[in-house]
Design a protein that fits this description.
It holds the Pfam family DUF4169. It contains two helices and no strands. By secondary structure, it is mostly helical. The chain has one domain (about 5-55). The longest helix is centred in the first third of the chain and has 24 residues, at about 5-30. The radius of gyration is 24 Å and the shape is elongated.
Length: about 60
């Protein structure tokens, strides 16, 4: 005979798991200190500037 399950408990457990997964994702995105965020932003800006600096022609001069 099959095991009897309570559908309400299964639904609530599934919702709890989804909320926990969202919480883990939010901790990664929003759980960094301000210094780490600014350092990352500065690094991205520097990388973009260096990447654009290696262009042979600027986008304005191509027109």
């Amino acid at each position: 005979m099959a095991e009897i399950i309570n559908l309400k408990q299964v639904r609530k457990a599934r919702e709890r798991a989804a909320k926990e997964a969202q919480a883990v994702e939010n901790r990664v995105v929003f759980g960094r200190p301000k210094a780490a965020k600014t350092r990352e932003e500065a690094r991205k800006t520097l990388e973009a500037t260096r990447h654009e600096g290696h262009r042979l022609k600027t986008p304005d001069s191509e027109a």
